[in-house]
Design brief:
The structure holds two protein chains of two kinds. The relative contact order of chain A is 0.12. Chain A is mainly alpha-helical. Chain B is about 80% helix and about 0% strand. The chains are: A mainly alpha, B mainly alpha. The interface between A and B is large, with 109 and 103 residues.
Chain lengths: ~240, ~260
């Protein structure tokens, strides 16, 4: 009985996590829009996949991603090689962002806006170069953000000063950046942190903070994601400013 | 059935492709630089396989079941036929009050998609574990979801009224800074992080559809310019709600402690 419950626990939790979406969509479709739900069989099958997928993912986090990230952070701390740790942090941020599908989508849309607004020439080549430039800018900024975050954990600096400094930078840049780039810049901060990157980066931060003497995992381990969503905003506005001149 | 298998294999390959850079970086550092021992390597490998398979199933299911319907719904709720009865009745200047169902949908879908967001589940799990239960995973997830819900609704209001995005963001930053001063230190990093994690796999496609629907039907808005910005709202507001939640939780527990002492 206990084994049975253990095997089904992730599925039951996934069911609980997904039920709000199903309820919201059903409510609006039936009561507000007053339309039948199309392709009911297909939707039921799709929901089953979502359920299984979420349960597997969470189980995979528990036994795979979290132990791996923490073991690596521990090895880095034991090895004591700061240059390797910094290059790992940078590559992790840069490598996971440059291939991020949500970022590729946003960069393409941003190139369209820029071309329509006469910000860049509306040729295929210029738009592709602009989109790529934007992606490189964001990936670079996420890499640098993770590096700054890791250095902060190593030295034990308090997070709020960095965040408030970052906010002031964003506000200052907003005042001088071209109007067309602002919405994209703010959004690019949100899309960079994907479902795979977040657990990995969190495990790295918490692992580092737990293996260094005098660091508190709760106080010092978190905060990497916050940097990774703040710095791209600043960098994208700098990119917009640079493109405008 | 065959069609499903085909879609599944395609999604699995896409997931593998997206994960390739991470796998290469992790592999290089683990086997070339660190060469440190790894406890229970097969278990970890099995876990990573679960993650890959789980992501593929999750994405495929979302694309089959939830995204098409949610996106269609966002389009229908913002369509002039639904809001004003017919196209001919679109007023020159739309009043924000006409959009009641849009706000309700933004609120509900922002909340519901955030509860299902795997990255947030991960962060909440970790926070509960390392805080020894002092930070409740559910409390965190519910307050983040409330933040996304409020943020997306206010973001919709902004698109409808056509006010400047940066005004809202700067105001939100100021509120966050003031809250930071009055919040317990240990929750601050977690609150800042939860702003970034909310907007990924499940939430972004649906709220982007909502923003696009609004910006393309309201006269004078450009979908290209005004459609952006909802993600930004969904990333700032959770910081506020998480800080507010801990502030309230702290007051509440210290009050009950005082009462029991008396």
């Amino acid at each position: 009985m206990r084994g049975f419950r253990k095997a089904f626990r992730p599925l039951i939790e996934a069911l609980r996590d997904l039920s709000p979406i199903v309820l919201v969509i059903a409510f609006f479709q039936i009561f507000v829009l007053q339309q039948p739900i199309p392709n009911l069989g297909g939707i039921a099958a799709g929901l089953l996949f979502v359920l299984l997928g979420l349960a597997l993912f969470v189980r995979g986090l528990e036994i795979g991603m979290f132990p791996l990230g923490e073991a690596m952070a521990y090895s880095f701390a034991k090895k004591g090689s700061v240059p390797w740790l910094i290059s790992f942090a940078f590559l992790l941020g840069f490598g996971t962002t440059i291939a991020e599908p949500a970022l590729i989508a946003i960069a393409g849309k941003a190139a369209n806006i820029a071309a329509q607004g006469g910000f860049i020439a509306s040729t295929e080549k210029d738009m592709a170069a602009y989109a790529l430039g934007l992606r490189l800018t964001v990936a670079l900024s996420v890499g640098i953000a993770i590096v700054i975050g890791v250095i902060r954990i190593l030295l034990g600096w308090p997070l709020p000063w960095f965040i408030i400094g970052g906010y002031l930078l964003v506000v200052g840049m907003t005042a001088i950046a071209p109007q067309e780039i602002i919405g994209i810049a703010y959004d690019s901060g949100g899309v960079t942190t994907s479902t795979i990157t977040v657990p990995l980066v969190t495990a790295l931060g918490v692992g580092l903070a737990s293996s260094i003497q005098g660091r508190n995992p709760l106080l010092d381990g978190f905060g990497l994601i916050a940097f990774a969503s703040l710095l791209p905003i600043v960098f994208v506005m700098v990119f917009g400013l640079w493109m405008a001149n | 059935m065959f069609e499903f298998v085909q879609i599944f294999i395609r999604t699995l390959l896409e997931t593998l492709h997206d994960l390739l850079p991470i796998v290469l970086i992790l592999g290089f550092f683990q086997f070339v630089i660190l060469r440190g021992p790894m406890a229970r390597p097969w278990r970890i490998l099995r876990g990573l396989a679960y993650i890959m398979l789980g992501m593929a199933l999750f994405l495929m299911g979302l694309e089959e079941a939830i995204f098409p319907l949610g996106e269609l719904m966002a389009k229908q709720l913002t369509a002039p036929e639904f809001l004003f009865g017919s196209i001919a009745q679109i007023p020159e200047h739309v009043q924000w009050q006409y959009y009641g169902w849009v706000y309700a949908f933004a609120l509900a879908i922002g909340f519901a998609t955030t509860i299902a967001e795997p990255a947030l589940i991960a962060i909440a799990m970790k926070a509960q574990q390392i805080s020894g239960g002092a930070v409740s995973a559910w409390g965190l997830r519910l307050s983040v979801a409330a933040g996304v819900a409020i943020g997306v609704s206010i973001g919709c209001y902004r698109i409808i009224t056509g006010t400047d995005l940066w005004l809202y963001i700067i105001a939100a930053y100021i509120i966050v800074m003031v809250q930071t001063l009055f919040s317990p230190k240990r929750i601050i990093p977690l609150a800042y992080d939860s702003g970034g994690v909310t907007t990924s796999t499940v939430t972004v496609p649906l709220i982007a559809a909502l923003g696009l629907g609004l910006a393309s039907t309201i006269p004078g808005r450009s979908p290209m310019i005004d459609g952006f910005g909802l993600v930004a709202f969904a990333s700032v507001f959770p910081i506020m709600t998480v800080l507010a939640y801990t502030w309230i939780a702290e007051r509440w527990t210290s009050n009950t402690r005082e009462t029991t002492r008396r």
